Amino acid sequence: MHICVIGCGYVGLVTAACLAEAGHDVICTDIDSDRIDKLNAGIVPIYEQHLDAILSSARKARRISYTLDAGEAIRAGEAIFICVGTPPKENGEADLSAIDHVARQIAEEAQSSKLVIEKSTVPARTGFELQRALGAYSRTGNIKFRVASNPEFLREGTAVADFLHPDRIVVGVEDDVSAAQLREIYEPILEHRFHCPVHQGKCPAEHKAPFLVTTINSAELIKHASNSFLALKISYANVIADLCEKIGANVDEVTHAMGLDPRIGGQFLKAGLGFGGFCFPKDVQAFIHLSASVGVDFDMLKAAEKVNKQRIDRYLEKVCKALWILKGKRITVLGLAFKANTDDIRFAPALEVVKRLVDQGAHVRACDPEAMDRAKHSFPQLQYHEDPYEALRDADAALVCTEWDIFRTLDWVRAGKLMSRKLVIDGRNLYSPAVMRELGFEYYSFGREPLSNGRTASGY
Ligand code: UDX
Predict the structure, then answer these.
(1) Which terminal residue of the chain, N or C, has fewer Cβ atoms less than 10 Å from its own Cβ?
(2) Structure pTM?
């Protein structure tokens, strides 16, 4: 099928690449000329596992192209995926102006009937407004636009794998033709008819993802309800961690046992610095806003958001208790990205930590395998190190803020010899407190036994 993808960000590029891998002809467009130039030159502007490989094979097979001319892309696509940003406004409401802009372009440029699919995360009822806008902006009124919602559930870092091996595919439609067209688009993925870059073409036997056809409103709600539920789960685990610290229990033991109950499940129960990134914080805010706008009280979600914001305060309390005065201290921050396997630093808890350390006059060094280039724009005054051991040389403390594997497997015996003080404040619970104590470290983490060179430091 000829498919147009509008917006070449994380969602748009992964969608375009995977649909091309599935055998469709994809044309991508974006208002950012620099991005389109890079893509045309074969440069992938974001870091996402397998994306490079899949885009270059699609390019070689001539199944993907990029243009700055939105009209050209719109006219070429039978189905148009809208993958533009929906950032939060001051009041938490999703800013849908990019969707409105795209609706106008589609209505003005289309010369034949189109299936217009919202892939960006949008509040419920956006599909209804989109349908109205397409009708209102159309010059002739002769072209038929069918609107559908197809929420993405991609996690950054594993987005290609998530797209090609989905848990479920949700399509919100108002007519059978749109449902059939979307099934045709996803058929190669449902039937595993693609060369999988994740498993080198040899995917483990897996169940067929359910293809769920719902109304547009339901599909839109499914996305927000899913992300908000996961955010609730994380905040729940974080409150349990606080409770463990007061009571003298271990949050890892508690959440592990909880997760073995299939009704609860073990994922998204990791206590620590809390959730960040461009999805969870904004989706939670948008969902709270949407609920309030229709008179439904979602205090539960507000509480989850509050708990999450307080994680940074809780962490800085630990840092201040351990180091006493921050001014002049050499502090190494391990991890800047909002989570491992991405270069994305948007709403990253680590950056908020860095900001507060800098504000208090600490000398901050940072190490991150992928996110340093981006972080340099916001914090040019930091010292950046590719090598974590170099970053830790003469440090008064190591602050672990992102759960990258290179930090998980760090040789702390070697690091300890380089550091000026053997102090680790672990915001992601990566290490065993007992092991760190054996290695002679003062070690603090979330919701586990607080240790300070054998001295019990209550209240951490
Ligand atoms: C999320 C959803 O998972 C995905 O389905 C949706 O399409 C987009 O939003 P993403 O933002 O890539 O994906 O990140 P995710 O892996 O879900 O993690 C979100 C945040 O929660 C990260 O900051 C992560 O560190 C944090 N987190 C996650 C925890 O603090 N504890 C956990 O147990 C899990």
Answers:
(1) N
(2) 0.91
Residue nearest to atom 25 of ligand 1 (CA): 339
Asked if residue 303 and residue 250 are part of one domain, the reply reads yes
Instruction: Locate 355 and state its tokens.
Output: 């900001």
Residue 266, C-beta contacts closer than 8 angstroms, at least 6 positions apart: 255, 256, 258, 259, 260
CA-nearest of 299, 325, 137, 311 to 234 is 311
| Distance of alpha carbon 147 from alpha carbon 114, whole angstroms | 8
Please give the distance of CA 393 from its chain centroid, rounded to a whole number.
Answer: 32
pLDDT digit string, tens, across residues 196-209: 888 876 777 767 89
Ligand 1 centroid to 263 CA: how many Å?
20
Do 105 and 187 sit in the same domain of this protein?
yes
> Does the CB atom of residue 272 touch ligand 1 within 6 A?
yes
Tell me if 279 CB under 6 Å of ligand 1.
yes
Quote the domain boundaries for residue 240.
Answer: 219-308
Known catalytic residue: 196? no
Same domain, 169 and 227: no
Please indicate, yes or no, whether residues 20 and 73 belong to a single structural domain of this protein. yes
Q: Is the CB of 127 under 6 A from ligand 1?
A: no
Q: Whose CA is nearest to atom 27 of ligand 1?
A: 275
**Per residue in 434-457, pLDDT tens?**
999 999 999 999 999 754 444 444
